[in-house]
Structure formats: C-alpha cells, structure tokens
Amino acid sequence: NAYELLNVEWNKIKKDEELIQKQIEEYSTKQKLDSAKNTLLIWTNNYNINSCTQSDVVARDDCTLSSIPTTNTTSTANITTTTNTTTTTDTSTTIHPTKRVSCVAQEKVSNELAGVNERITALVQLKQTGLSTAENEKQLKILLKQKKSTSSQLKRLRNHAIAQKRLRRPSIDDTCPDLLATIEEIAILNGAADDRRRTETVRPCLTLDDLRETLKMKGYEIKRSTLYYRLLPRRALSHDGKKHVHTVNVRLQKAHNNLHSKHEDGHFAAAAIRFAKDLASLFGNDSVFFLSQDDKCKVPIGLPAAKKQAPLLMHLDYVIQLPDHDFVVAPRHQLTPSVYAARVINAAGDVGYSGPTYIAIRSAKHDKSISANHRDDFGRLVKLQEFKNVALDSSNKVKSIVIITVDGGPDENPRFSKTLASSIDIFKVHDLDALFVLAHAPGQSAFNAVERRMASLSHDLADLILPHDHFGTHLNANGSTIDFVLEKQNFQKAGEVLAEVWSNTVIDSYPVVASYVSSSFISQTSSYIDEHWCDRHVVQSQYTLQIVRCNSQDCCGEW
Questions:
Q1: Whole-angstrom Cα distance, residue 310 to residue 325?
Q2: Domain residues of the chain, as ranges?
Q3: Nearest Cα to 514, choosing from 366, 368, 389, 340?
Q4: For residues 536 and 555, is the Cβ–Cβ distance under 8 A?
Q5: Which H/E stretch holds residue 485?
Q6: pLDDT tens for residues 151-186?
Q7: What gap in Å lies between CA 359 and CA 341, rounded to an integer?
Q8: Which residues are paired to 511 by β-bridges?
Q9: What is the distance between the alpha carbons of residues 102 and 541, in angstroms, rounded to a whole number?
Q10: CB burial of residue 18 (10 Å; 0-12, 13-18, 19+)
Q11: Is the pTM value of this prediction over 0.90?
C-alpha cells in the first residue's frame, strides 16, 4: 500500500540531508501546481453529481422540471444507490427510477459555469508558473465575479426546482385518469334530461356529497372541492367558473322551486324500471330489445318550428325572408312526432342511453296519438335496417324479450285496456317470450331515456319553417279549410320535409330514421281482449304491464 511505499523511499534518503531537502522542494512545487486544479475539479464534480443531467434516479414525486434530490441526505443516498448496489438504502427515502426530465435553464447555466471554470483553471496555472501578466490578473478577477454570479443563479434555479417538488403534489387527473369518465357514468345512470329538452346536459339527481360518496365506494378518495371543479360551472365567465378546466358534461342542480315534482309512487315506479334493467343485463343484448318511447311536443306548420335561438351561417348577398308575425296559420295545423329510442346493452351488461332512433310523424289534425299507433310503429321500426342489430336476433326475428319504458300518458299508460290490447297484439304477432311495459310516476318523465334525444331533435328545428301551402292554399281568408283533400296533401308534404330534416341527424353515432305516417282508421281499432288468456299470461298494475309466455304447449308452444 501507500504507507509501505513511503517507508521504503524514506529509508533510502533519510541518511542524506541534501537529498531530503531536494525531495521536499520537488514535492512542494508539485503540490502547489496541482492544488488549484484539484480543488476546482472536486468542486465541479460535486455539481455534476447533483445536476439533473447526471442523475439517473429521482424521487417518487418527480412532477417538476427538475429531477435533483430534495436534500443533501437524499443526494448521498442516491449516489450510494447508483455506485454500490449492495448497500442498503435509507428506509425513510423512497427512490423510484423514472425517465429523466430535461432541465433547459439549469443545463444552460451549468454549461456556462463549466466554461468559466475552465478559463479560471488555465489562468490560475499560468499565475503559479510566474508567467501571468497584469491583463491576465484583471481577466481572472472578472471571471471570478462571473463565476460567483453564475453559481448563485444555478443555485437559485435548483432551489426553485426543489421547492416546486417539495410543495407540489401530482394532479388528480394524472393519478386517476378515468375519473371524468366515472363521474359521467354515475351521472348518466342517475340523471335526468334538461328541463326544456334544449341542451344535452345531464342533471344528476344526486347532491355533491352523494356523488362523492358514490365515487368513494368505487375507490376514488378525492376532496369535495376537487370534485366540484370537475363539473360544469354555473357561470363560465365568473372568477370561480374559470377554475373549472377539466370538466365533464354534468351540471349540479341549483336551488330553485321548479324541480321535478315528487310523487308518492316515484320510488316504486323507479324500482320497477331498475329491476327491468337488471333483467336486461342478465340476459344481455342478444335476447333483450330495450325501447323507450314518447311523443314529442307538436311541431307547428307555417311558423318557426322551435322557439330557440341558434347560430346561422348565411350569405349577405340576398335577403332572408321571414314572416313578420307568429300568429297561428289555422287551428290544429301541427304535426305530432312519436319518438322511439332503442337502448343498446353494452358488453358489461349495462343498459346504455345510446342507440338508433325512429320517429313517426303524424298530422295532429287528422290523426290521434293512441296506443294502436304505437303498436303499428313498433311493427314498422323492427323492419328497419337501422334497427336490425338492436331489435332482431341471429334468426332475423324480434328478440324474445322486449322491454318498453313510457311516460305514463293516456296513450301509453300500462293500466289502460287499449294499451293492454295493443301490447297483446305485439306479443302475439312477434311471438315473444316476455313483454314488459313500464311507466314512470307522474311528473317524472324527464327520467325517461328518450327525453335526452329531444334536445338534438329540437336543435335541428331552430331555423326551420314547415310549408303549409306547398300544393296551394287550402284555407280561406278566415283560416277555415275549404279543400280537405288539398289540406291532407299539404300536411303530408310538411311531414315529409320534417322527416327529411330529422333523418340527417346523428345522435351518439347512431342514425335517426323519420317518416310521415298517413292517418289510418285501421290502426285505431284495437283487438278484442280475451280475459281467460290474460289470466294466464298478463300481470297488470298501475305502472307495470307484464306479458309472459305460459308453460302450455297447446297455448304458446315450446320455449
């Protein structure tokens, strides 16, 4: 070792005084020449070890622009971990290898400092040899001042990076990337449509605390304020509204007195629909056809179809001609759209809110909204190509289980006899195994899934005026009908125009099929109800109608 070598050399020169003095002078000169250089190299090596460009390990909370350790103790532990893999690291410091983060500002200042240090080293060596001039001395002083300021700047940048790392924690969007999708899923499953069906915003029927508890059950432990800022703000331009950056299309209900009216049977009706969804999830999309139906508000003829403002793209080289009044053209000059929304069951077994849509448009003056019309519309929509994947099975027959949710109006309420007769016709004609007609409680029609598609349909009517005299006027000066045949032709033309507009609509990537249906007295005739047959197959209540195949092969055949 070095100690033994020194003893051997000392034994050789210890008896000669001149040789000892000569050796001392030689070592002294060598030490003076190397002292400045060695000191500078040690200083630069210490900085290179702590710099972000030389570090291969960083702390776990590395979310800032720098990857340097937070303390000197951590730095020592990091170096020990990289140089000696057998050394046990400090248990209080958790180190995880991650990819390096580029520190542009620190790298720029560090490179500048390295260049200054090289020039200082050269001038110091020149000064120790005795060949330095006054200009070199002046330049050395300038470089030392520059080194001091550059070192302070680099230290400030590193301290700033350390402070950012120490005070900042990862964003909830980074730690829980699927949080927004989960919030939207909870809101959709427990939400209602907009009050006036003009926007696609979902109104969750939960308070903020209930929503937070539901997320907690799913494994998301987040603060109340964090959850609030993931929802749509009440006023986007307010100071608090600007904090809502990463949001979902869900808005909390504000406190007012026009919420959904409560009904004593609301929970009972909702529970029946919820059980039907569980049944659909159990059998899956291959066996269940889930349909939601309702009549949209009547569309006027000869007037703006929707009282809603919407942006229009128009040229300025021609005049837009609009009527200067909004008086009714004639009594009952309206169209009644019946909307049927299919609901697709996904692979996970959840009944979704998306699917193809069929709209049957009828004249409000020449036709009525009755249960027999809904029966005929059902037979018409199952033959459409757009409904083939959701309504038919592999053998091109209607799926064995059909579930229909309605609002409970007089034309579709399951407790009425005409609704029962129409449902029996659907059950027999399509040879079903089970048919369920479920109604919502009064005042809670917004929970029906078809209501969510009304906003998209209303948006297409914002700049539309349906013609009332395409084939010539059928009215006199008093607004009375003078030609009934021409009146039906004009109504049919207006319905065809409306059907063409809605057929170009796409809702959630699913098509919309609309058609005008002429009035028919045959569809208004319901079938005769066999009470003995109903006793074996039908279970009827105020909100539920259930028709199920019996076990008799003579009656219903084999399952």
A1: 19
A2: 2-169, 174-243, 280-307+329-548
A3: 340
A4: yes
A5: helix 484-503
A6: 999 999 888 887 776 666 777 877 888 888 888 887
A7: 9
A8: 506
A9: 69
A10: exposed
A11: no
